[in-house]
Amino acid sequence: MEALLALVVAIPIGVLGGLIGLGGAEFRLPVLVGIFKRSAREAVPINLAISLITLLSSLIIRLRVLPDFPYVSLLVPVGGLIFGGMVFAFIGAGWISQIPVHRLEALIRYFLIMIGILLLIEGLFSLPVGHLLRYSLWLQGIVGIICGAMIGIVSSTLGVAGGELIIPTLIFIYGIDVKLAGTASLMISLPTVATGIFRYFRKGLYRERKEWTTMIAPMGAGSVAGAILGGILMGMIPGQWLKVILGLVLIISALRMFVNHHQSQNKTAGKV
Q1: How confident is the model at residue 263 (pLDDT cuts 50, 70, 90)?
Q2: Dihedral of alpha carbons 168, 170, 175, 177, sign
Q3: Which of 256, 224, 196 is closest to 57 using CA atoms?
């Protein structure tokens, strides 16, 4: 029964991956903890494994729906974001741990809401965006590393792939179309997630066979099914509406973070 429920709840989260270009980790984690009663220590590695499946399947279907991906012109920005994200996901975690958790959550929450509102406005009315692809490769790479570093710090802190920040970066700074930005986001997120899985694998956190049969495999299958549906919808929905959907997703994510923060505060206060 648990495996069937895991399959069903993974489908809509997988749709987000195929439609927008997200791994869905921030939506899946509350499900693993709240519905399936996994501890945070158990949920994070499970979440990463399913995120990898979601990212891979979403990338495959998106490349089939939009086969003419400009690999050459986006090589430097994508490479810079990957490099900055992977390096600072490691070395930035120590720095960021010195900031009080509630302040960090508040900063990220307001940042997500701001980006979400900008995407809503851009999707409905069109805003001026940067066109960094018109400038030198050196500048593209340096900006990519800087942005990737900031995204890597946030990703390592929250345990997500960072697609919510990668896609707006590609849209507003590099001037990339939202559909191409979603595909590039999947490529950028894959190394970060794979690195996290490798670290957890070395710690022996994937040895429990029950988690593979009742959680990872069924949720992975649901993610693949959802990614296929999302990829098909992505080819049919105009890019402006995808920006609106992504903006709403970011705002909802930020509001959920706000609710979770206050719930944890109330639980703490109740114990005092």
Answers
A1: low
A2: negative
A3: 224
User: Quick one: pLDDT at residue 28?
Assistant: 83
Whether this model's pTM surpasses 0.85: no
Read off the pLDDT of residues 173-202 as tens digits, 9 standing for 90 and up: 999 988 999 999 999 988 878 877 887 787
Which of 29, 23, 43, 12 is CA-nearest to residue 260?
A: 29
